[in-house]
């Protein structure tokens, strides 16, 4: 579709400048899209594998916890859990990926700290369940980080892809068509005035 | 308040309380929504939710999707995984690429 513009030299120059700008923007966005895609491909499969692994590990841990629940009543469980001394701490940072900020978590987890509850009131199942939970916890953080990155990069990729397509398939062809139209029109005007001049000259000579 | 929070039915999340993590046991949609708002307002970095809570709070969670923090992650509950998170990732991928590059992602 042609852009509405007066067919004169001023407009022609302006449109040409817009065209070079649009082409440069297109090239930059295309580069950005490629780089995002490269990162995306790297992370998305890893995220999916980690998700599968975590879900499996959690299932085992949940099963152990549920069997511990069968043997202990609510208050005893609450008391046991409240006394645990293995406190996990999390540091959240942000990493820059292109124009995006993705979270990076680092986990501090005391590996050797004892579970702080008494052994009399609790069952071995609880120990085992908490052991399994502890093993899966760092992976959960990693999973949260990766899935967030996947989401953020995916959203940005979609936006970039739309922009690239808009430039490539709409703005640039429109500008080119309009420039061609104006150039043709100017050439036509030129020819018109030449013939008019020739005609006038002829009339003057015949006089 | 820990930097990590869990929201879900009690048996799915209770065990994590042993590691000094904030756990919020909820049952029912309304309770889940209220708990989610309350937990997020305390500024955690990661919020883990079970699939039920994720479905109940999907509108609230969508607000945080474009921000790096807080990160909301779906986990399976004790009753097992329904593959919600995998479907979520799959959607993100097809939106980003404009094509299905993971193949079986939605079903597995």
Secondary structure layout:
The complex is a heterodimer of chains A (207) and B (108).
Chain A: H1 9-71, H2 74-82, E1 89-97, E2 100-108, H3 124-206
Antiparallel strand pairs in A: 1-2
Helix pairs in contact in A: 1-3
Chain B: E1 4-8, H1 10-13, E2 22-25, H2 29-41, E3 46-50, H3 51-56, H4 58-63, E4 71-75, H5 84-97
Parallel strand pairs in B: 1-2, 1-3, 3-4
How does this model look, in words?
The complex is a heterodimer of chains A (207) and B (108). Chain A is mainly alpha-helical and 207 residues long. Chain A is 75% helix and 9% strand. Chain A has three helices and two strands; from the N terminus they run ααββα. Chain A has a two-stranded antiparallel ribbon. Chain B has a four-stranded parallel sheet. The relative contact order of chain B is 0.16. Chains A and B meet through helix 1, helix 2, strand 1, strand 2 and helix 3 of A and strand 4 and helix 5 of B.
Q: Which residues of chain B form runs of ≥5 with pLDDT under 50?
A: none
Text of the CATH class of the domain at 4-78 in chain B: Alpha Beta
Side by side, the strands of the main sheet of chain B go 2-1-3-4
**What is the chain-wise order of helices and strands of chain B?**
EHEHEHHEH
Within the CATH hierarchy, at the fold level, what is the topology of chain A?
A: Helix Hairpins
Summary of the model, kept short:
Chain A is mainly alpha-helical and 207 residues long.
Short key terms for the protein model shown above:
heterodimer; A: 207 residues; mainly alpha; 3 helices; 2 strands; B: 108 residues; alpha/beta; Rossmann fold; 4-stranded parallel β-sheet; 40% helix
């Amino acid at each position: 579709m042609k852009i509405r513009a007066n067919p004169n030299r001023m407009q022609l120059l302006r449109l040409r400048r817009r065209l070079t700008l649009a082409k440069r923007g297109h090239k930059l966005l295309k580069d950005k899209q490629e780089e995002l895609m490269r990162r995306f491909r790297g992370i998305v499969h890893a995220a999916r594998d980690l998700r599968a692994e975590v879900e499996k590990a959690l299932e085992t841990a949940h099963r152990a916890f549920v069997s511990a629940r069968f043997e202990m009543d609510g208050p005893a469980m609450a008391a046991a859990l409240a006394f645990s001394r293995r406190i996990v701490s999390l540091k959240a940072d942000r990493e820059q990926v292109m124009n995006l900020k993705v979270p990076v978590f680092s986990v501090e987890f005391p590996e050797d700290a004892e579970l702080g509850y008494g052994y009399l009131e609790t069952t071995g199942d609880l120990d085992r369940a908490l052991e399994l939970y502890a093993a899966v916890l760092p992976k959960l953080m990693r999973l949260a980080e990766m899935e967030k990155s996947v989401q953020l990069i995916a959203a940005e990729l979609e936006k970039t892809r739309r922009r690239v397509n808009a430039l490539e398939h709409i703005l640039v062809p429109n500008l080119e068509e309009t420039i061609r139209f104006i150039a043709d029109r100017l050439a036509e005007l030129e020819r018109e005035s030449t013939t008019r001049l020739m005609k006038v000259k002829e009339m003057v000579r015949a006089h | 308040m820990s930097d990590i929070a869990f929201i879900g039915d009690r048996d799915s999340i209770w065990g994590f309380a042993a590691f000094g993590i904030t756990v919020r046991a909820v049952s029912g949609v309304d309770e889940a929504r209220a708990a989610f708002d309350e937990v997020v307002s305390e500024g955690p970095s990661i919020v883990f939710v079970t699939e039920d809570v994720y479905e109940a709070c999907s509108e609230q969670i969508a607000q945080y999707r474009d921000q790096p923090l807080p990160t909301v992650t779906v986990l399976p509950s004790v009753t097992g995984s329904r593959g919600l998170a995998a479907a979520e990732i799959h959607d993100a991928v097809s939106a980003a690429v404009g094509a299905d590059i993971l193949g079986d992602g939605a079903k597995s």
